[in-house]
Amino acid sequence: MEYKILIAEDDADIAELISLYLENENLQIVYTKDGQEAWEIFQKQKIDLLILDIMMPRMNGYEIIRRIREKSQVPILVLSAKTMSQDKVLGLGLGADMYMTKPFDPLELVANIKALARRSYHFSSLGNSSNQNLMKRGPFTFNPEKMCITKDDNEIPLTAFELKILVKMMKSPGRVFTKLQLYQVINQDYCLSDEDTIMVHISRIRSKIEEDPSSPRYIKTVRGLGYRFEYEDD
Predict the structure, then answer these.
(1) What strands, in cross-sheet order, belong to the sheet with 98-101?
(2) Does 137 score more than 90 pLDDT?
């Protein structure tokens, strides 16, 4: 099965460099330097992963992420010259799975893309198994065949990374997970913890599962340590 990656990058030299490295990994590349065209390509073709610049003609990367997340949980990696912490938080907050800044190490980029691809397909392959049981925690149910979590029988629209984090915490209710432990759940290739990334992912999960995200009932912050998942049996 061919894995197709859409590169939306208005710097042709950077796009060519990325393409050379990814084609060496036998990945199919679709390229555009225009944000509006990137959105149109995504709607017309089956794209398995996106690499997005932020500043592009006609439509910026933030708007593309926002539109894609309204209809798809496809993995998204942002590659941007915008290096401020608030830029990264905004990109992740809109639903990007990873945020890398320029200049970048091509080998690190390839490793991150392969990690995203593996996890995306890992979820799909798990979905082919029919002998796994549902995992129930209070109002939440994890279905390993469909690779989804429901709350009161309503499916929660989680990205692949959000799903991995929540499943990890649901498996060990009451256990405190550090930010490093949760970061390793989504990025096993690099052990350097990125606190901004975890904080944004936790915030997004809370916005999807909590009645009042500002006063969370299920994902509790343990000050100075990390987070834990709690629930009450009906």
Answers:
(1) 28-32, 4-8, 49-52, 76-80, 98-101
(2) yes
Q: Token pair for residue 35?
A: 């944000």
pTM above 0.85, yes or no: no
CATH homologous superfamily for 4-125? Response regulator (3.40.50.2300)
> Are 4 and 45 a contacting pair, CB within 8 Å?
yes
> Percent of the chain scored above 90 by pLDDT?
59
Q: What is the model's pLDDT at position 132?
A: 53
* Continuous segment of H or E residues that includes residue 49: strand 49-52
CATH entry 1.10.10.10 includes domain 131-229: yes
Burial annotation 114-140 (CB, 10 A radius, 16+ → b, else e) = bbbbebbeebeeeeeeeeeeeeebbeb
For residue 14 the two structure tokens come to: 């950077």
- CA 152/CA 25 separation, integer angstroms: 42
Q: Phi first, then psi: give them for residue 9, nearest 5 degrees.
A: -150, 125
